[in-house]
Specification:
Number of helices: 11
Shape: globular
Largest sheet: 7 strands, mixed
Oligomer: single chain
Radius of gyration: 23 Å
Helix content: 25-40%
Low-confidence stretches: 1-5, 42-61
Distance between the termini: 38 Å
Number of strands: 22
Structural class: alpha+beta
């Protein structure tokens, strides 16, 4: 059933959590910035118009969102046949979730990309008629050919670029490895598409490459997950599309200004997933840089900011960084500041004050390490270094237990036998299913919030 109400524009707030105190000679300042958008989503009493802006005389109105669904229809999707059938059903469920007025298209992906609906290099506008036509077109998809995911993304980019919609989103499903395209080709495509649209990626079954699917989602600021049982695709696609329909503001950036002599060591999203944004900085004026955060609805995310400041004497205080959420203006004028927070540094000779670790900073430092050691442990296991894998995955169990990350702890328990969670003592399981290992790897970056 389609959701016909348009989200309201969210309001942003930014809260900074840190220990402001540094010892004499101390230079590294860490802070967690919690950014919250409220008042968006599709809840509330405000009935919004179908379109984001009025149309010019004689022209079609501008849709508020544009979505391209990319469905793997390579030959492997026919083994077993239920996989292709479930993919069609899932795509139909996603189409039913489209809000009236949203621009959309469906792409069939093999070693090349083909427009299934509406065709002609254009996007359709969702209503009862076009949703029905799109679902009819899905029945004509047959599984054959190879896999070249970059071609799917390039076609999606071309289609989305034809729309003036504020929210531009892709949903990508694959069941296999990107065998008909080199890694460099896919990387080049991702670099070209980054910042132009976001993309959620899903792997169905267990014959796909985790790093390819998670790499797509990471580069395009979307989500990645495994759907091991094709029967779960419809529910997953519906949830994904509902999330897309709840987005209202796109291209929001985290802007970090630092004073003279200070330098940014890193900027990471740490909740709901770990994502290093440091290398994605674009300069935004003197001593300021923007880090992309993608599109927002009604949600909250946490960011870990680390700044190296100049040395100062005991008793001195300085602004280490100013963190702003900014939205670029379409006419090139100064961006709109949605929220702002301050990161401070105060030098003290009070040992207790300067050595205290802020609870939020400590928690998310552990969550980032948890993601890292899981990935390292699984790689070591694949390479045959069982002792190294045991040590890393044991540390992961310890961190998951300590932070209350129960979901990750349950996934780890399918890969190792836990002897002592608190101590991180584990034994590798002799036999681990591909599903268990791939699920742990795919979801390794998912974090939990700090316990209040």
């Amino acid at each position: 059933m389609a959701n016909f109400s348009k989200p309201r524009v969210p309001r942003f707030s930014a809260e900074v959590y840190q220990n402001t105190h540094l010892p004499e000679g101390g230079r590294e300042v860490n802070a967690i910035v919690t950014v919250t958008a409220t008042g968006g989503g599709t809840t509330g009493e405000t009935p919004a118009p179908t379109f984001a802006s009025p149309s010019p005389s004689g022209a079609s109105p501008t849709p508020d969102a544009a979505v391209v669904i990319m469905v793997d229809s390579s030959g492997s999707m026919e083994y077993p046949p239920v996989k292709m059938r479930n993919a069609r059903d899932a795509t139909a469920a996603a189409i039913d979730t489209l809000r009236d007025g949203v621009a959309f298209a469906v792409v069939s992906g093999t070693h090349q990309a083909k427009e299934i609906y509406p065709g002609g290099g254009r996007l359709a506008v969702a209503d009862a008629t076009t949703r029905g036509q799109a679902k009819d077109a899905l029945r004509k998809i047959n599984a054959s050919g190879g896999t070249a995911i970059g071609t799917w993304l390039r076609l999606a980019d071309k289609l989305l670029a034809s729309s003036d919609a504020a929210i531009r989103h892709g949903i990508l499903l694959t069941d296999g490895r990107n065998e008909h395209e080199g890694p460099k080709e896919l990387l080049t495509t991702l670099e070209a598409c980054a910042g132009r649209f976001t993309c959620d990626a899903r792997g169905v079954g267990t014959d796909w490459e985790v790093k390819e699917v998670t790499g797509i989602a990471s580069a395009l600021l979307g989500t990645a997950d495994i759907v091991a049982d094709p029967a779960g695709l419809a529910a997953d696609f519906t949830t994904m599309m509902e999330s897309v329909m709840g987005k209202e503001i796109a291209d929001v950036s985290l802007r970090l200004w630092t004073p003279l002599g200070a330098e940014v060591r890193f900027v990471k999203q740490v909740a709901p997933t770990v994502e290093d944004l440091t290398g994605r900085r674009t300069e935004a004026g003197p001593r300021a840089g923007d880090y992309p955060t993608g599109s927002w609805g009604d949600e909250s995310r946490d960011y870990h900011v680390c700044v190296r400041v100049p040395q100062a004497e005991v008793g001195q205080e300085m602004l280490a960084a100013r963190v702003s959420l900014v939205l670029p203006a379409p006419d090139g004028s100064p961006p709109q500041v949605l929220a702002q927070g301050l990161v401070r540094a105060v030098w003290t000779d009070d040992l207790a004050a300067s050595t205290a670790i802020n609870a939020q900073v400590a928690h998310y430092t552990g969550q980032a390490e948890l993601a890292r050691v899981i990935q390292q442990g699984l790689e070591l296991r694949k390479s045959g270094d069982l002792d190294g894998a045991t040590a890393k995955l044991g540390r992961a169990v310890q961190l998951a237990s300590r932070s209350g990350n129960d979901d990750t702890a349950k996934l780890l328990a399918k890969v190792v036998d836990v002897v002592d969670a608190a101590a991180g003592t584990v034994r590798l399981k002799a036999k681990v299913s591909a599903e268990a290992q791939m699920t742990l790897e795919t979801r390794s970056t998912k974090t939990v919030r700090v316990k209040k």
